[in-house]
Design goal:
This protein has no helices and eleven strands. The chain is an all-beta fold. Strands 1-2-11-5-8 form a five-stranded antiparallel beta sheet, with no helix packed on it.
Length: 104
């Protein structure tokens, strides 16, 4: 049975109104954010870059490591069916933090 994605695209909600939702995504070394689905277009702003592994929880050999840089800003279109991200794990030696801003 495949792992179903959660709706939590960050570690906590910082702000929400009828037009926007802002998530904090903070991962210390070794910490994870479970497989999740983005249902809204969004962008993220990296506060503290880190080395993050995106791994399929149902097939741990299927992964991609991405080094995020401080002050990086990235736009993502979620599409009509949403965008699923696999489990994120901070495999670096320093904390990683970014803000995810969803546009409603």
């Amino acid at each position: 049975m495949a792992t179903e994605p959660t709706e939590n695209v960050g570690t906590s909600i910082m702000y929400e109104n009828d037009r926007v939702r802002v998530w904090d995504l903070a991962l210390g070394p070794g910490e994870q954010l479970e497989k999740h689905v983005h249902r809204l277009p969004y962008f993220f702003i990296v506060v503290s870059g880190g080395l993050i592994r995106f791994a399929d929880p149902d097939n741990p050999e299927d992964y991609q490591d991405i080094q995020f840089e401080d002050d990086q800003v990235t736009w993502v279109n979620a599409g009509p069916d949403g965008k699923v991200d696999n489990r994120l794990t901070n495999i670096g030696e320093t904390p990683h933090r970014n803000y995810v801003i969803e546009l409603k």
